[in-house]
Amino acid sequence: MMEMNFEEFMYASSLWTFFLLLASVSCSPVEGVHHLIGSSQPIITAPGDDVILPCQLDPPLDLQRFTVEWSKPDLKPDPSDPLGWVDFVHLYRYGRENLEMKLPSYVSRTKLFTDELKRGNISLKILNVTSADEGRYRCFLPKLKRGSVIRLVVDPNLKNQTTETTPRNLPTPDPGDGTDGRGDQTRTIVWIVPVVLLVPLILAAGVIGYLIRRRRQELDGVKYDAASNNPL
Length: 232
Hints:
The protein is built from 2 helices and 12 strands. It is an alpha+beta fold. The strands form 3 sheets. The protein has a 6-stranded mixed sheet with strand order 2-11-10-5-6-7, with no helix packed on it. The model is unreliable at 25-31, 165-173 and 178-191 (pLDDT under 50).
């Protein structure tokens, strides 16, 4: 009786182990699931306008507790201070804007849509645009290691108007963040990885179950022979 209980315990333990491994593989985050979508075309505005640089995480996540960085990747450190940092256009950290590392020319002129962070929207609004604001901007999520580059063009020939551009459905990844815009291929890889990991787990569970059943049959056979050789 004790042997049967032990065999049943081993069988149940193997099944529980298999299901726990299955759950852990299915729920584990896989790098490459998310990417940032900006604009595939330059954002064109006029001096004095307010402009929105679009940047949306796809699929969305609640980013209220994430660090959000907006920078100008073409800016270089001060030659007189080669070890100095290049400050940010906008830095959101610990649930608020960090002003200590902000470029002086952007103070009081940038903001995120904080109510939209929970939907994965980290678009940046720049107020009272000047010609000095022209150039490339990079939105970046350090935790996910995902970024996107948006180009801003300031055209003095345009009439003054608020330029608000809706994020397009084309990814514009940062060349240095490991994404290349191939969202479908990335998703395919994300599905393949769990499947590849699950195959050996399924095979292992099947082998364990087979060995346990065979062992039980051998024990039953031994008990039957013993009973036959010792009739009442």
